[in-house]
Structures are given as C-alpha cells and as structure tokens.
Amino acid sequence: MAGAPRRQRAVGRVRLGVNAIAGKSRVSDVAEAGSLRVRMPRVDGPAVEGVLVNTAGGVACGDQFTIEVKAEAGAHAVVATPAAEKIYRSDGETARIDVAITVETGARVDWLPQETLLYDAARLARRFTVDLAPDANFLAFEALAFGRVARGEEMRTGHLEDHWQVTRGGGLIYADAVRLSGPLGELLRRPTVAAGNRAWATLLYVAPDAEARLDEARALMESARSECGASAWNGLLAARWLAPDIETLRRDAVAFLNAFRGAPLPRVWAL
User: Fold this and answer.
1) Distance separating alpha carbons of residues 237 and 104, to the nearest angstrom
2) What span, in angstroms and rounded, lies between the C-alpha atoms of 145 and 232?
C-alpha cells in the first residue's frame, strides 16, 4: 500500500528440541529471541509439552516470526498455544510466520496451536514445512477464522498466503497452498472457496497406521455441525472442517482431536 508509514516491527524466534532417554522425552534444546517464548508446563505422560507464547500480544503488519521444532529419535513433543493468535489489520506490510518441524526415526510431534484469527484488512504469509523420517509420526491441526463473527465484524479485505509442505524420507508426500487476496469477504462467499463460511481447519496425520484409520476418522465426524470430510492415501490422512464461525468449528474439532488422539488436548486449550 503506497504511503504506508514504516514502523519498528516485532521479530521473534523459538527453537525447541526434544530427545528420549530411557523411554521418556526430555528437552534437549531451547532458544528464544525477540517476542517469542516457549514454556514447558509439567504434564503427566511420556511427551514434552511446549507452549508457544507471543509476548507482542498478536501479529501486526511486517512482523516476522520463526518457529523450529525437532523431535530426535524416539522422542515425543506436543506443541500448543495458550490462546488464538490474532493477526491485526495492516496498512501495508505483510506479516510472516515460518514453521519448520523435524521428526526423526521413531519420534512423534503433535502440532496443536489454537486458531489463528485474521482481523479485517490483515495481511499474513505463513509457511509450514515438515521433514519426517520414514517411520515418524506426525499430527498437525491448524484452524483459521476470518473476522470476529461474534462482534459482527465483516471481513471486507485482506491477504492470506498459507503454504504446507511435508517430506518423508526426503521425498515430498504432501503440498498445499492457499492464496486469497483483495476482497476477502467476496471471495469467502464464493461456493468454490468457502460458501460464506468464516472458519476452516485442516488436520494432517502422517503415520504407519494413517490409512487404516480413515473409517475411524469419518465416524468421528458424523455428529459434527461443521461441513467436514477426510481422505487417506500414501501413508497420510487429511481432514478438513468448514463452519460459519470458529465456535462451531472449535467444538467439532476438540471432540474429534480428543477421540482421535486418545488423549486430551493440552490444558491451555481449556483456559
């Protein structure tokens, strides 16, 4: 946007590494810079739970954040956020969030942030890359909400780029890219985009048993109020939800995730 003022922007970086000793996962590496932090609450069970905290209080135009997570051989990491990540309106620059996850042999990562909320006129470019060992386990859930429906906010304009890329054993197994720019309200009303819905979510599960769990996933979706569906191929399972508001989607997704994972979501989801 021509004429937009230049401001000092937030820059944050977090790196979390987890290894396994005697069958129990432990933190092996932590690095923090800028406005990103990671906290490890005490939890029962063999996994390390990391909670990502953005001390800037949200993401604004031109902010840049980088998150790296690595689970070494046999380790299990669960990563969450304490609340929705708010992407505020921009008068010009695009905020950027880059996530890189590495899961080594026999390890597992559950990526479970709460929803990302785009305000009217928000601008966000997000890249999500995952590198898996052939026998690694990986589960990711990401939800997006367009505007504050409960406050009657209309999503008129904005910009979203969302790129996912997953490799297993060095080969690409999953790639997904979304780019919506300009009159977002109008675009979301199109039947081929969101049919007027204002919230959507994607779940990706990559594991040796992923394809065998397709019927289970579809059965768990039968009582959902959201529009949803699941498919499985090539050792992965993908599911999507589409709802008029984030509250509806969140209720459906929480019920699904608790059952599908066989474990409750991180406690920060209930705060």
Assistant:
1) 19
2) 25
